[in-house]
Every structure is written in C-alpha cells, then in structure tokens.
Amino acid sequence: MERLLRLLPLAVLLAVGAPLAAGTEDGQEPPATQPTTRPTPPWLSLPKPPGSKFGAPRSAKDIARLLEEARGTLEDPIFKRGPFTPFGNVWDGMNDELEKAAGLRFGLSYTTLYQNASRGKDPRCAWSGDFDLFGSWKVPGPGDEPLGVLSFETEHRHRISSIPPAELGDQFGSLWATADGFGEHEYALRKLHWQQFLIKDVMALRLGKVDLSDFIDVYEFDSSNDAFLSPALNTNPTIPFPDFTLGFGVSTQLHELSYVTFGLADSNATKTTTGFGEFFCDNEYFKTLEFGFTPTIEGDKKGYYTIVFWHEDRRKKARTPEGKGLAITLEQELKGGWHPFFRYGYADGGSQVARQAISTGMGLAQPFGRRDDLVGAAFSWGQPRRRSHQDQYLFETFYRVAITPHMALTPDLQIIWDPSRARHHDTVYVLGLRMRIIF
Question: Can you give the residue range of the structural domain that contains 281?
C-alpha cells in the first residue's frame, strides 16, 4: 500500500492537470476531437430517432463500433496511400452497395502484437496475431426503421513466437496478463446476437451469444486493439465477466442524462462453444446491474459516471465460490482532446483475479494536431484475491499513430512493480509494438 500512496500524487496530477494543459501556447484550442468520442447512437446501433438522448455507452469492442471504425478510414495518416488501399477501396464500395440494397455490412481486421519482458523465465518475448471477420444486418421493419439488428463476430488467434502475449505475464509471476486477448485458439464464433428497441428510444434489448463487457462497465479506452494493452486498464480485474456466452442485456433510459442496464449470462461457456448445454443445464449465472449518469459539458463533451453491481453463482465444475462486488467508473471528455478517467473495483469471492483494483489516467486525442493519433498514460494498483500474494502496481503508456488509411502502429511501454506471484522480481519492463489493419 505504501507504493500506492507514493504514486497517488502523480495520479492526481494526471487527473486534474488536463484542463490546465488543454489550450495551445497561443491560447487557441486545437480542432474539435473525434477519435476518442463515443458515438451518439445507442449501444444497439439502431437508428437514432429525432431528439433521442439514449445514453447507454458501448465498448470500443462492440460490433457496431468496430463497423464504424472500419467504415471511416484514417483521414490524416503519414502516408495517404498504402499497400492495402486498392483492396480497401473495393471492399468499401462492395459494403456500401450491400448496405444500400440489403442492410448488410461487413468488416475485416488483422491485429498483431509483439512484446518483450525485461525479466522472468525464458521465453521472455511473445508474438501473436488476431484475424476478425464481423458484420451486421439491419432487418427491415415497418416504415423506415429496421425491426432490429443481427450481428456476428468471428475470430482466429494464432501465436507467431513460442508463446503468445496472453502467456507472457506468467513468465514473471504477474497478477494479470501483459495484454488482454492475443492468445491462441482455432477459428471461432465469438458473438451472435439480436438487438432491438423494446420501447422506442427508451428500452433496448440484446440477446444471444454476447460479451457482457460490450455494454457493462464500459469506458473509452477498453479495447486492447486501439488503446491500453494491460487488462488492469482496459478491463476491471475485479469483475469475472463470462467469456462470450449465452445471455442478454436490457438497457432503459431513466432520464435524458441517466440509464440503467441489466445483464445476465451463463458463467461456464467459452467463445469456442455454443453454450446451450451450460446455460440450460448447469444453471450457474453471472448477473450485473449498472446505473449511469451521462452529463455533457462545454457544449458537446460527454461524461460517463457509472456504478456496477455484480453477482456470480458458485460454479461446481470450476470449483469457484459464489462472488459479488461493485465497480465505479468516472470519465469525462474535456476541451483540447483530454480525457481523464478513474476506475475502482471491489470483489468478495468469485473467480476474478483481483480483490480490489484502482486505475487512473488519461488519453489525449489529436496530439500534435494529428487527427487520427491517440496517446494514453495510466497507473493501476491491484490487490490479489489470494492474500498470500503481494499487491501489484502498473504504469502503461502508448502512442497510436496512423500510418496509412487502413493501418495504425502503436508502441507501448508497461512498467510492473512487485509482480504478485514472484517476490524476487521487483520491477519488470514490457515493451510492445502493435499493428492493426482494418477494412
């Protein structure tokens, strides 16, 4: 805890220093920021009726946001054309025609990550790739609005070196992995869900093979494809979210500035199985309830202030106890592209890796006036579920730079103090380089 107290002043400076630094030297603000602004439509990605203020947020991993990312090629890359530009033009043209004729749209992405740790057992380098195919179909309904949206996402993950990044943290006894995802498995259907409004512009439903973290405990930097790599920062390590399983979510607008979302999913299924047997036979579920407040300041700067309560049933086959907990997220867009955040989580029982966790930091959109770039820096502290393990601390920073209209590179640095399962390793440095190609 002493180290946490030593890091706290710097964390506070990160959180409060952004507004002071928001202007440029001549007192003029940079152009309005777009890359980190959460889209305004609801998380179901249905058309937004006039006057709609449906405010439930969506993760950057959500299929609707992935399609938005794929649709909008990078506008200010270093090179205006690249080796993938001809294919991208053909793909975009085909997609536009499909969407116009049948309401169908598809996306493709390939993301590869290399990481190297300064200490630990050999091997200390890890490299893997991740291919994704995703899409959605807006099912026609009465009038001009669709009945709903059917969405899917498939994935193949493969290692390029002897171990993938998902396993690198085990080499030096880390409480969490050095990267969220970036493991190894055969081609799998991760998500397949139906979504629609139950009450127009008031209540929305998502049902099928879902990822609850697409719409629960969401914040702007929660994707390891675009922002922080460490699960301590792009997830909340105190919440044992199930792994792409059968479930549903319902979100209701309480007021134009507040909402409530409930989610339920099977606790045992995995991304490589359908989950029907586990859902209907094992009857072991993960439930969560989120309350959110979504104020807007300075005209169009959105804020998300949420509290999440969750409960996990005892899992007999996995031999994990019943668990419950809460999580708090505070984040606010500010002028100049600054986006500070603070997150806290607490768990009692359950299958999660951490009993308590705190993370705080910020992102900056359009650094140096580059419209598609993003930089981030944050600290995290985690208290392990097992009391025999020591608290772990993390600092991570990254810079995502647009190289071509379809490709971005992200150098990343993590500094990990006191890895929980290896007391003899005081400090570990992890260097990373991520490449993402998306159409």
Answer: 2-438
